[in-house]
Structure formats: structure tokens, C-alpha cells
Design brief:
Shape: globular
Mean pLDDT: 82
Largest sheet: 9 strands, mixed
Oligomer: single chain
Helix content: 40-55%
Distance between the termini: 73 Å
Strand content: 5-15%
Number of helices: 32
């Protein structure tokens, strides 16, 4: 029998209720309201099957229900899912009563194999994905009121779009509604279309009035929707457990350090001895700084926070207020510190993190070991202020290394490998020609600084360096050689040894040394440590005017003062850094450099500590210095070193480039344009057609770096270096362009069958991961965009860390295994013999670690430690010797020692 639309709608409402839309009908109303949900599911499914049997199409059935085809499919899926769950539960109950699978099948009216399937472990969990996801959305609406369920949300949650749609349908059947709304994009004239889920008690008008409250679900699933986890609210420490050590009590000497009582679980640093952390206090404020253990804290105190502030009578004034959700005014529990942190979780019996748990109030930004891998090259802002001889020597080493690398690549016999590595080399050389970094000095390392109160101002505790040797500390940015302290390594200092032990990437210094380092503090600042027994690095005493200069007290904010934004900080810091570089290169006297450096010290802390940087510019005569050394009070960089990375807009180019006869890049412009509309003060509107541009840098576009020079001797050294690197890049491209393809050898394929099969398998695995990697990139971008929107003041360093962390999180979430193809020596022999076609080899190289390819293509003998040396090294370490002492005793570098002792994958640590 075929029902009319009215009759069928009445039947559906009375018998099922699953198709309720916009809260029109009460759930399960009608004469069958007393029936179980399982019965209603069966009735609905039977109805749809009956209509199909009578010849109705899916669209006709949907029309009879007064719903869309998509709604019908979702309703059927929900009903089938629920019915199947009910059957599984019934089968499990009957099995527990002792019934056989055959008997259960007869009672339920399903085949016996299906019963066995229903009784498999975990079968019910698969079906509960819909219920669990619906509950996540239900809770999100209860918490946030207006929940974004638009494109990309399913990726962020870690489920398929189909699962999200069905979960939304479940809620729509309960009276929840979905609306589309446009919101303005910040900083543009465009609007974004949002798809928003709201609860039964909210209306579209409520949504329009509260656009700012729209946010996506924050729960994340790592198993396709079976379980969800979310960022946990941080553990908040009672302020009674926190002592504040103010400036007058010695806090200034350890400004930014949080001393932690050892052995207290909820303030544990995990496996680290020191870490850069954020700690919530009283649920309203937080501590920001470097945490390190100390066992002599006052009774009843688990944390001691050192600050350069004075006591106001309220210890919370020395802390920072937790970030607020701008829409609600409450603490933003998802980003309370305004920066990305790692939470320390509870562990299970196998030592694995337990999801949705937090065991410590320490929210980690960087932990011990994270600073170890930071860049070791020499920046131009440091080297250009040193002697021309040192700059020329280190730049020459850089060029020599590059030339040697190019010569090795040019001798490669495999064309595909050669082309890929030459392309990589050319890109790197072009980049190096702009950044102007030089080769590192022997044994230099980046280290985070920590205060040791009993340390002599002339000494440093540095276990990665030799006891008794001279080292210099370089902090970026710095004004000149008067901000480079030279110290003697003392690795026998008792307090430092007790607090830091064999620190892998930290040094201990007296607080006065931090002052010498252009006002560094101890909340995570790093320095470059360079051995200097041969006095290659120039230093000079601290300028008198910089002694005891505290920008935080001299340039405090006043009521109504304009506060520096992160964007302004970047602009002002670039301005003053370029000014100092230009002044130093042009031989400015110390009294003038002192003025510029004072201003730079104000600028570097102005945004963080709300300092009056505008008054600083006036009082330190910055416009006059710019006039003298840069040509005008509003002028910019004037030397090749300061102008190198200055922005230059060029006409928009098509992707890729042609290689010219000398290896130069030849770009093709797109010719694209857009109409720009402007409105003057009188309200008159004008339009003009503007050619589209893209960003580049002055040195990248310069065919001769000398055109950016003011003519000083050190500039000639750097301009020559840049030109030489560009020439190497062109040489690599020229050779790449003339390299012919290698012939494929079927005979080699047969001879190396096992290796070829292995490479094909590895490539297939890598390519199989590609869609997941793309999905991970989309997820990470969505999360980063969301977090940037909630924290628009995020600086570049925080954004860089956020992108890295979220990409790793996204890869884990979507199952993307970013594992590059590891080519064995045997497989490399197969490649060299021509057993792999050019096309397939190109794919392999695109998914391989180019550094490892380079090592295979240009093998060098690596100096390692013998087993007896490793054993001796461990014995020395257990005896309390520093890594520098052990390395010296074995006749190897500290880096070689660390590589040799680092546990390999699969080893027991």
C-alpha cells in the first residue's frame, strides 16, 4: 500500500519520531510512544523497505517524508546502527545465558555467521562511534552554545565527514538545529560562511547576536571516533604554596626563575632537570619562566618565583593574569597561557601517557635537551661586528664547504640522483646568499642560561666545555662587542654541579653576566657559547651607561599610554637592529652606540613589559642617529648586511622558472591584476587597476650584492660572499640542465630483484601515506588558524612552535606516518646499476631523506667510538666527569661523544 504524503508523514511521526526537524514534533509521540526505541528503529526501516519494494525511488521516499535525500540516508543509517547495537547487546545477553550461536540466530532471525560476527570483541565499540560522537557534539553545544561544524571540523576531530554528518543528524532528531551564517574575516573585506549547530533552546537570532561565541568542538579522536580526548584544564597551584622573591630580596638576580621543590608530584618536571614552563596559580594567574629544582625552599613552599618587581602586598601582582576568552570573559581553558605547551600526563604501568589526564602543574614550553639542536652557524649581525679577518675566514669556510659539496655532486654517475641533489644544492645556496650565515667556530653551542647565585661574575658552569678554558657568550640581538662577556669555565663549582649536573644544553652564570648580555633574563633566554682561548672573538668591557640600566624601571608605562603590539615590536626591533649594525659598520663611537643599544633594550621588552618605547626613542636621540648614519630620520637600512633581507615586492610570478644559459633563474610574470578601491576623507570613491605582486628580498633580487653596499670594507667581504654563493647556485643549475637521463637496465632489475622489490614496497608505503599527510596538513592548518584567531598577539617564535606541534599532533591523529624511505647500501647499489626507472627513482627521491641520499652518493668515513671507548665513557660519566672532560680524555668532540652514546631506535635506554 502506498501512503499519501500526509498519511505517511503522520505514520512516521506516530511510529518513529526519528525524522523530527526543527523541533516540530515531540520525540516518540503518538499511539506507539510506549514502544522501545529499538522497535521504532525497526518500524522505520521496514517502512522504507516497503516503499522501495513498491517501486518508489529514494528521492520519492524522501519527498514523502518531507525531507531531503541526504536526511533520509542519515536517518536510515542511524536507525540501522541503533538496531544493530540492540541486536549485538541481545546476542551478548543470550550468550551469557548459555545459548548457542545457532539458537541465538533463530531467536533474532539472523544467520548464525552474523551472530558470531556480533559476538566478536570490540564489535559494539565500532557501532558506538555514532553515539560517542553525538555525545561530544551535545556536550560542545552545552558548553559553547554555538558550535562550528563546517568544513574541516571533522578533520580536526579525527573522524570522517560522514560520521560527523550522521552525529549531527542524531542531534537534529532531538531538536538541535543547523544554520549557515556569514562572519567577517579579520583584516580583509571578505566573509567566511560558517555552518553552526545550536541547541533546542537557542534560535537563529541568538546566533546572529552572538557570532563571536562560535567555536568548533575541541575533543579529538585518535581512533576514528571510538574515544575522544581534549586539552585538559591546567592544574592550578594554590598561591599559599608559592613564595615570591622580590627585587629587594634578591629576585632581580634570578629574574624569571621558578625554584621547584623536588619530589612533589603535582609540580614535577617529568624527566627534565630544568624546563621553560607556565604554571597556573589560584585559577586566575600564572607564572612564566625557567623552572629548576632546589631543595632548600622555605617550609610549606613548593615554588619560589624570582622577579625584578617590588612587593605590592599582593603576590599575584608579580604574576601574569591567565588569558581570557574574549567572547565569554572567562579564563580560556584551551589556551590559558597564550602559548603552546605540553602537559605532563599520568603514566600507565607501561610508562605510556594516559589520555585526558594531567599529573603536574608544569606546562612545558621547552624542556631539557630542546635547545641542543638549535642553529650553530654565525649570524651576520654578530660576525660583521668582529674583525674583518675573522669574518673573511668563516665566510671562506662556508664557501669552501659549498664548493666541495658541489664538486662531489658534479661527479655523481646516476643522473636522477644528481639532478635531485643539484636542485637541492642550488636552492640552499640561493638562500644562503641572502641570509649570509657563516660557518661555526670550533665547538660552539647554543645553551640556555640559568642563574647560579654563588658563581663568580668571571666564571661559568658549562659541562659541555673544558674546565678552565675561556669562552665568550653571544646573545642575539646584541649591539656590539661590549655586550659579549668573556668567562672562564669552572665545572667544579659546587652549587652549579648540584643544581644542573651534566646539563646537556644549559650553563650557569652569575646574574651580573646576564646584565652584560644586553639585559638578558632567566625565563628561557639563550646564548651562543664559543671557546675563545685564542682570542679570535673580540670583546670589550661593558659600556658605563649600560651598567645598571634597567629599561623596565626607567621606561615604565603611564596611564593611557599606547601599548606596543607584536607587529610594532617586529618593525621597531628590525629598525633599531639595522641602525646598530649600520652604526657599527660605519665606525660610530661608543657613546652613540650606547644610545642606540639602550633604545634596543627598551624595544625588546616593550611589548612584554609595556614600556614607553616612544619616549626612549626621543630621549636617546634615535632620529638624529638615523639622520647621521642612514641619511634621514625616517630612513631604513643602508648597508648590504642590514638590507639583505629587507622586503622587496616584485610582480607576481608563475610557479617555477626556466634555467638561463648561465644557470640563472628566468621567471615568467603572471600579469595578473586587481581593482583597488579607495575612499578619501570626503567620502569620494576612486578605483584603479593594480598589478599583483609577491614578496621577495632586496638581496635575493640583486644581480650584484655590491649595489646594496655603502662602501665599507666589511660590506665588500659580505657582498663578495653573496655573489660567490649565487654563482655556485647558477653553476649547479647549469649542470643540472645539461645532465642527461640514465638508461634503465632490465638486466639490473633482474639481478637486484630483492632490492627492487624492497624499494617498490617502501615507495608504496610512502605514497600510501601521502593522502594522510595531506589530511594532516589540512588539520594542522585548521587548528593553527583557530588558535591564531583566539590569540592574535602570538609572536613568530610561538607561531613556529605551534605549527610544528600541531602538524605532529595532526599526523598522529590521522595516522600519517611521515617516515622517509630509508635506502640501504644494497638498494643503493641497485639504483646505481640502473635497476630502477627514472620516473620511479624520482618518486623515491621525493620521499627519501636527502641528507642520507647525499651520504650514500658521496660517502665519507665517519669517526665513531669503539666499544671499549663507549664503555670507558660511561665509566667516566658515572664518576661525575663532564662531557667535555670525557670527550677530551677520549680524543673526540663532544658532538661525536653524544652521537655515540645516544640510544639507537629499539635499544633499551
Amino acid at each position: 500500500m502506498i501512503f499519501s504524503e500526509d498519511e505517511y508523514d503522520d505514520k512516521v511521526v506516530k511510529h518513529y519520531g526519528i525524522l523530527r526537524k526543527s523541533g516540530r514534533y515531540p520525540w516518540g509521540s503518538g499511539e506507539h510512544a510506549n514502544k522501545s526505541q529499538a522497535q521504532r528503529n525497526k518500524v522505520f526501516l521496514q517502512m522504507v523497505d516497503d516503499l522501495k519494494a513498491q517501486g518508489l525511488s529514494e528521492s520519492e521516499i524522501a519527498k514523502s517524508f518531507k525531507i531531503t535525500t541526504g536526511d533520509l540516508r542519515n536517518a536510515r543509517s542511524i536507525a540501522k546502527n541503533a538496531a544493530k547495537q540492540d541486536s549485538i547487546l541481545t546476542a551478548q545477553k543470550l550468550r551469557n545465558k548459555g545459548m548457542s550461536t545457532t539458537a541465538i540466530g533463530k531467536q533474532l532471525g539472523i544467520p548464525e555467521p552474523t551472530v558470531r560476527l556480533y559476538l566478536r570483541p570490540g564489535e559494539l565499540d565500532k557501532l558506538k562511534v555514532l553515539d560517542v560522537t553525538a555525545n561530544v557534539l551535545r556536550n560542545a553545544v552545552a558548553e559553547k552554545q554555538f558550535v562550528d561544524i563546517g568544513s574541516g571540523v571533522e578533520l580536526h576531530m579525527g573522524i570522517s565527514n560522514d560520521k560527523l554528518k550522521k552525529a549531527v543528524s542524531v542531534l537534529e532528531n532531538e531538536g538541535y538545529t543547523v544554520h549557515r551564517i556569514k562572519v567577517q574575516q579579520l583584516g580583509t573585506s571578505h566573509q567566511t560562511n560558517l555552518k553552526v549547530l545550536i541547541g533546542p533552546d537557542s534560535t537563529f537570532l541568538d546566533l546572529v547576536a552572538n557570532k563571536g561565541k562560535i567555536s568548533p568542538p575541541t575533543d579529538i579522536s585518535d581512533d576514528g571516533g571510538r574515544t575522544y580526548s581534549k586539552i585538559q584544564p591546567p592544574i592550578s597551584i594554590d598561591s599559599k604554596r608559592v613564595a615570591v622573591r622580590y627585587a629587594e630580596e634578591g629576585g632581580r638576580e634570578a629574574d624569571g626563575v621558578i625554584y621547584v621543590r623536588p619530589g612533589v608530584k603535582d609540580v614535577s618536571l617529568g624527566q627534565s632537570r630544568y624546563a621553560q614552563v607556565r604554571v597556573a596559580v589560584d585559577g586566575t594567574h600564572y607564572l612564566k619562566g625557567m623552572a629548576m629544582y632546589r631543595d632548600d625552599l622555605p617550609a610549606g613552599t613548593d615554588l619560589v618565583f624570582n622577579t625584578n618587581k617590588s612587593d605590592t602586598g599582593n603576590k599575584l601582582d608579580a604574576m601574569k593574569p591567565l588569558k581570557l576568552d574574549k567572547a565569554t570573559g572567562d579564563v580560556d581553558q584551551e589556551n590559558p597561557f597564550g602559548s603552546v605547551v605540553d602537559q605532563i600526563k599520568e603514566k600507565d604501568s607501561f610508562g605510556r601517557d594516559i589520555p585526558n589526564t594531567v599529573s603536574s602543574a608544569m606546562n612545558v614550553v621547552n624542556k631539557e635537551g630542546d635547545w641542543e639542536e638549535w642553529s650553530k652557524s654565525l649570524a651576520s649581525q654578530f660576525l660583521s661586528k668582529q674583525s674583518p679577518i675573522l669574518a673573511k675566514t668563516q665566510l671562506a669556510k662556508t664557501l669552501e664547504n659549498k664548493q666541495t659539496e658541489l664538486d662531489e655532486l658534479s661527479r655523481l654517475s646516476n643522473p636522477a640522483v644528481k639532478k635531485r641533489l643539484l636542485q637541492s644544492f642550488a636552492d640552499d645556496a640561493d638562500s644562503a646568499a641572502v641570509h649570509l650565515k657563516a660557518a661555526s667556530l670550533p665547538r660552539q653551542r647554543t645553551q640556555v642560561i640559568l642563574p647560579i647565585e654563588s658563581m663568580k661574575p668571571t666564571e661559568v658552569y658549562a659541562p659541555n666545555f673544558k674546565d678552565g678554558e675561556k669562552v665568550v657568550l653571544v646573545r642575539y640581538p646584541h649591539g656590539g662587542t661590549f655586550e659579549i662577556p668573556e668567562l672562564t669555565v669552572n665545572n667544579r663549582q659546587a652549587e652549579a654541579k648540584k643544581l644542573l649536573g651534566q646539563a646537556s644544553d644549559a650553563i650557569g652564570i652569575h646574574s651580573s653576566v646576564a646584565e652584560h648580555l644586553s639585559g638578558a633574563d632567566f625565563d628561557g633566554d639563550t646564548v651562543l657559547v664559543i671557546p675563545n682561548n685564542e682570542r679570535k672573538v673580540k670583546t670589550q668591557p661593558m659600556l658605563e651607561g649600560l651598567k645598571d640600566f634597567d629599561p623596565k624601571t626607567q621606561y615604565r608605562e603611564y596611564p593611557g599610554m599606547h601599548r606596543m603590539t607584536p607587529t610594532e615590536k617586529g618593525f621597531e626591533m628590525g629598525n633599531v637592529s639595522n641602525l646598530i649594525s649600520d652604526m657599527t659598520i660605519k665606525g660610530a663611537p661608543n657613546n652613540e652606540l650606547e644610545r642606540a643599544v639602550k633604545h634596543s633594550m627598551v624595544v625588546i621588552d616593550a611589548e612584554k613589559h609595556n614600556l614607553d618605547y616612544r619616549r626612549s626613542a626621543i630621549e636617546n636621540g634615535i632620529p638624529a642617529l638615523k639622520e647621521k648614519y642612514q641619511g634621514a630620520s625616517n630612513a631604513g637600512a643602508q648597508t648590504v648586511i642590514s638590507r639583505a633581507s629587507s622586503r622587496l615586492d616584485v610582480p607576481e610570478r608563475k610557479q617555477g622558472y626556466k634555467i638561463g644559459p648561465n644557470g640563472e633563474k628566468i621567471f615568467t610574470e603572471t600579469g595578473a591584476s586587481y581593482v583597488k578601491t579607495t575612499v578619501n576623507k570626503a567620502g569620494k570613491e576612486t578605483t584603479e587597476t593594480v598589478n599583483k605582486t609577491e614578496r621577495s628580498t632586496k638581496l635575493a633580487e640583486a644581480t650584484d650584492a655590491h649595489t646594496l653596499s655603502s662602501g665599507m670594507p666589511i660590506e665588500k667581504i659580505y657582498a663578495d660572499h653573496s655573489n660567490n654563493l649565487k654563482a655556485l647556485a647558477n653553476q649547479a643549475r647549469k649542470e643540472l640542465d645539461t645532465t642527461k637521463s640514465m638508461a634503465y637496465s632490465p638486466a639490473a632489475k633482474v639481478a637486484y630483484k630483492d632490492e627492487v622489490d624492497s624499494l617498490n614496497y617502501k615507495l608504496a608505503q610512502a605514497l600510501r601515506n601521502s593522502p594522510r599527510e595531506r589530511q594532516a596538513q589540512i588539520v594542522a592548518n585548521a587548528v593553527v588558524a583557530q588558535k591564531r584567531a583566539s590569540n592574535p598577539d602570538m609572536d613568530k617564535d610561538e607561531l613556529k612552535k605551534l605549527k610544528f606541534i600541531e602538524l605532529e599532533n595532526a599526523r598522529n591523529r590521522v595516522g600519517a606516518q611521515k617516515k622517509l624511505i630509508d635506502i640501504t647500501p644494497g638498494e643503493w647499489a641497485a639504483i646505481q646499476a640502473g635497476a630502477i626507472s627514472t620516473n620511479k627513482l624520482t618518486q623515491i627521491l621525493d620521499n627519501a631523506d636527502l641528507d642520507k641520499i647525499k651520504k650514500l652518493a658521496t660517502p665519507k668515513a665517519e669517526v665513531g667510538l669503539s666499544s671499549s671507548q663507549k664503555s670507558l665513557a660511561l665509566t667516566y660519566a658515572r664518576s661525575g666527569h663532564t662531557q667535555a672532560e670525557i670527550a677530551e680524555a677520549l680524543g673526540v668532540s663532544v658532538s661525536a661523544l653524544k652521537r655515540a652514546l645516544k640510544p639507537k631506535e629499539g635499544d633499551d635506554e
